[in-house]
Design a protein that fits this description.
The structure holds 2 protein chains of 2 kinds. By secondary structure, chain A is an all-beta fold. Helix content of chain A is about 0%, strand content about 50%. Chain A has a 6-stranded mixed beta sheet, with no helix packed on it. A 4-stranded antiparallel beta sheet of chain A has the order 1-3-8-7, with no helix packed on it. Chain B is about 0% helix and about 50% strand. Chain B has no helices and 11 strands. Chain B has strands spanning about 5, 10, 20-25, 35-40, 45-50, 55-60, 70-75, 80-85, 90-100, 110, 115-120. In chain B, the strands form 2 sheets. In chain B, strands 2, 4, 5, 6, 9, 10 and 11 form a 7-stranded mixed beta sheet that branches. Chain B is globular, with a radius of gyration of 14 Å. The chains are: A mainly beta, B mainly beta. The interface of A and B includes residues 38, 44, 49 and 95 of A.
Chain lengths: ~110, ~120
């Protein structure tokens, strides 16, 4: 199985900050990586696919980059509604594994 | 509107069987893979398996192979996740989800069900 290691697992930030979450794959997955946001009690929401393509309707303060084994999700100018848990998922090899998650909390 | 609507919460005893459902609407059900994802209390997302309703092609995560069965009835646009003998460790929220492109999985899951909470307790 492909292992996805997210870091940090937890981060504390303020409204207006820029935050970066990384996702490292145990082997190359090309650009077949997605990012999701999950709020408590809700289903995950797709933010980015193909490593850097913004899903329709997602604010442009979210951006993704990377290919191969190293990927990043950046949230520019953090808004109150962005405090949530974020997951990466690789879509290149079965099983389509998720990272362990990064919880973004208000400082 | 494209939707996945899941069956309601379940409370079961260890050893009992269970089948939960995920009904698709607003799109051609047979053209899109359906994924099942587990989320145990306070934990992250775990990919369980996937089915293509058009031909019932099914893949499982090794972690769930033999523990659950994924199926679909394309005549009623519904996918299923079932257990023959539940354990307390099956207590979780189970989500179904659909990728953003027909017949492809590489664009991420852009439509999700609301989740089904399964509680297994004696």
């Amino acid at each position: 199985d492909i292992q996805l290691t997210q870091s940090p697992s937890f981060l504390s930030a303020s409204v207006g900050d820029t935050v970066t979450i990384t996702c490292r794959a145990s082997q190359g997955i090309s650009s077949y990586l997605a990012w999701y946001q999950q709020k408590p009690g809700k289903a995950p929401k797709l933010l980015i696919y193909a490593a850097s393509t913004l899903q329709s309707g997602v604010p442009s303060r979210f951006s993704g980059s990377g290919s191969g084994t190293d990927f990043t999700l950046t949230i520019s100018s953090l808004q109150p509604e962005d405090f949530a848990t974020y997951y990466c998922q690789q879509l290149n090899f079965y099983p389509l594994t998720f990272g362990g998650g990064t919880k973004v909390e208000i400082k | 509107e494209v939707q996945l609507v899941q069956s309601g919460a379940e409370v079961k005893k260890p050893g009992e069987s269970l089948k939960i459902s995920c009904k698709g609407s607003g799109y051609i059900f047979t053209n899109y893979w359906i994924v099942w994802v587990r989320q145990m209390p306070g934990k992250g997302l775990e990919w369980m398996g996937i089915i293509y309703p058009g031909d019932s092609d099914t893949r499982y995560s090794p972690s769930f192979q033999g523990q659950v069965t994924i199926s679909a009835d394309k005549s009623i646009s519904t996918a299923y996740l079932q257990w023959s003998s539940l354990k307390a460790s099956d207590t979780a929220i189970y989500y179904c989800a659909r990728p953003g492109r027909a017949a492809m999985i590489t664009y991420g899951m852009d439509v999700w069900g609301q989740g089904t909470t399964v509680t297994v307790s004696s």
